[in-house]
């Protein structure tokens, strides 16, 4: 790479998205803890009337974490990483700077409106696609703006080689654009019938077709929001923080194309034993198992990047976050394919093992990696020393304990549910009633809620550490040095 020391990077938009990452992360995870305690103690559903019920709050939690916290983190890292690996500053293009700022403004407005409308109960009721059509149009606008930023910066770059992280950001932009447009095709009911609220709509698809399109989108929204751009982050931040070169660039390319070709076919595993054609269910299962290869390819590549340098885990908590994130990525991407095998799915589906799987991936992989990226970026964006390394280390161990409590309780709860639901006596009658399973699971729900609360405490520690770093950290004459003097 060319030496980018003379380039004055502009981090104003990256800072704005970092702020929204922390804000929406806190909102989404506070609601998540409330939901966890509601599951353990159902009477909590009625303390705030209809606006405090599980059904009203859950879409706020999922959208707040996925599209508030996670997307903010993706955009923050893009506007930081892209300038540095492409060797170009946003300052050099007033047009792209304007695009980036408009991107943030429209995005922030959209997420705030999403919080308000979902809280009011205005929803399409489609998983991960609850926003009604006016907000969908806003999403399309700022997603296109992000695309202009991506290809605009690539077009004026000084570094001719596109580092692998850029590949993953491009893939996220293109695939989510396709998925979002096709799944969110809807017809405003007032426009068609003349009745109903102006913002209400119905899907253009119906029945099994709607289910197929929804889970083609839903599973790949996880793949290309929770996976692909997070891999982009770790391919940049782990080598930068450790001073190690990526173990295998060829493996990174192989894993990239494998992930893109296979992931798009795996959504059918959400519809096993449903009314969709059996061959589609089988294809979803098979592709999910094949998906282990590119997923583990990326994770193993990251772990091997630390080959010979494992002692850094003793001195650098930030690297611990990223290595454990890779480990949880491996765990989550073998757990999902196992759950998609039909015989296993017969036990796992509709049980708490499923949210256990989702959360060990989200909390262990996605959130850990985004927090690690923010920990790396903020001292460099503000040219201030990290406020407290010991607080970061305490946060790591607290949240690691929280994740273990969370997913183990949900694994046990889920498998217990699945086995109790399938238990028959000699007359072919069910041995247990539904309420029997609810009573048995109560202690596991309490453990999950405690795990979630501990994790939330870690999030507040993270937010405080970042705030103090940006406002009170020791001012540095130059940005913090990496482990070795590598690239920009």
UniProtKB/TrEMBL annotation:
Binding positions for Cu cation? 219, 269-270
InterPro entries named among the record's database cross-references: Cyt_c_oxase-like_su1_dom, Cyt_c_oxase-like_su1_sf, Cyt_C_Oxase_1, Cyt_c_Oxase_su1_BS, Cyt_c_oxidase_cbb3_su1
Question: What is its pathway?
Answer: Energy metabolism; oxidative phosphorylation
Keyword annotations of the record: Cell membrane, Copper, Electron transport, Heme, Iron, Membrane, Metal-binding, Respiratory chain, Translocase, Transmembrane, Transmembrane helix, Transport
- For binding heme b 2; high-spin, which residues are annotated in this chain's numbering? 357
User: Does the record carry Membrane as a key word?
Assistant: yes
What Pfam families does the annotation carry? Answer: COX1 (PF00115)
Would the keyword Nuclease be found if you checked this record's keyword annotation? no
Q: Which reaction does it catalyse?
A: 4 Fe(II)-[cytochrome c] + O2 + 8 H(+)(in) = 4 Fe(III)-[cytochrome c] + 2 H2O + 4 H(+)(out)
Q: Name one GO biological process term.
A: respiratory electron transport chain
Q: How does it sit in the membrane?
A: Multi-pass membrane protein
The places in or outside the cell where this protein is found are:
Cell membrane
Q: Which GO terms describe its cellular component?
A: plasma membrane
The protein's name is cytochrome-c oxidase
In its UniProt entry, the species of origin is given as Candidatus Marinarcus aquaticus
